[in-house]
Amino acid sequence: MKTSKNNPNHIAIIMDGNGTWSKRNKLQRKDGHKAGVKTAKRIIGYSLENNIKNVTLYALSNENLTRPKFELRNLFDIFFYSFTEEKNYLIDNKISIKFIGNLDDLPKKIKENAIFLEQSTKKNKKLNLFIALNYGGKQDIKQAVKKAIDSKNKNFEKFLYSKDLPEVDLLIRTGGFKRLSNFILWQSSYAELYFTDVLWPNFSKQNFLKSLEWYSSVNRKFGKF
């Protein structure tokens, strides 16, 4: 099943609710993160089916690095496994992957694997998949401004971690909260915001298509009549 018309060019998703899902199912938090990764792969597949050209997933924020060390270790292990296992899937489906954020503060194996995946998929053109990893919107803008000042270049946008992202058309947040949580603030200035109580591991194809149908019903004026 596909939506009929007016699909967004760029969907950004705050994948919230993994921890709550774990508690409700009496599982460990890492189980929620693993389930979240499976949902992410399904949503990428649904995006391909609906000819979405750009998808950005909020995988790890700057603030997430303050979480307990054992949870971070589990997250990093899941990231490493996922990045390694999904290379063939990305290539077979002509998906290019790009990581945005400060990778220097992450474990070496995560950074190296991310760079390897970027290089391996850079020629793919069917879908651009951006993963926000150790990313924060405010931090992104601040570091870009600093680099622009240091280099005496007035175009600070070229220094953004998120410089390759097109403007966000539809921003989806699962899990029940209605906030942006410091996610790609610069490109989301005119995004349509879709909030749902559905926890990310439970976010189904029907839920995804419902968000696309809602988006297609919006009259986007961009401040004009």
Q: What is this structure, in a nutshell?
A:
This protein has 225 residues and is of the alpha/beta class. It is built from 7 helices and 6 strands, in the order βααβααβαβαββα. The chain has a single domain (10-214), classed as Decaprenyl diphosphate synthase-like (Undecaprenyl pyrophosphate synthetase, 3-Layer(aba) Sandwich), CATH 3.40.1180.10.
Sheet with the most strands, sense and barrel status: 6 strands, parallel
Number of domains: 1
Instruction: Report the oligomer.
Output: single chain
User: What's the architecture in CATH terms?
Assistant: 3-Layer(aba) Sandwich
- Say how many strands there are: 6
Radius of gyration: 17 Å
Range of helix content: 40-55%
Q: Element order, helices and strands?
A: EHHEHHEHEHEEH
Note the total helix count: 7
- Could you give the distance between the termini? 34 Å
Uncertain parts: none
Shape: globular
Mean pLDDT across all amino acids: 93
Q: CATH-wise, what's the superfamily?
A: Decaprenyl diphosphate synthase-like
* Largest sheet strand order: 3-4-2-1-5-6
**Any idea of the CATH topology?**
Undecaprenyl pyrophosphate synthetase
- Secondary-structure class: alpha/beta
Describe this entry's structure for a reader.
This protein is α/β, with parallel strands linked by helices and 225 residues long. It has one domain: Decaprenyl diphosphate synthase-like (Undecaprenyl pyrophosphate synthetase, 3-Layer(aba) Sandwich), CATH 3.40.1180.10. It has seven helices and six strands, in the order βααβααβαβαββα. A six-stranded parallel beta sheet has the order 3-4-2-1-5-6, sandwiched between helices. Helix 5 links the parallel strand 3 and strand 4. Helix 1 crosses helix 2, helix 2 packs parallel to helix 3 and helix 3 packs parallel to helix 5. It is globular and about 50 Å long. The mean pLDDT is 93.
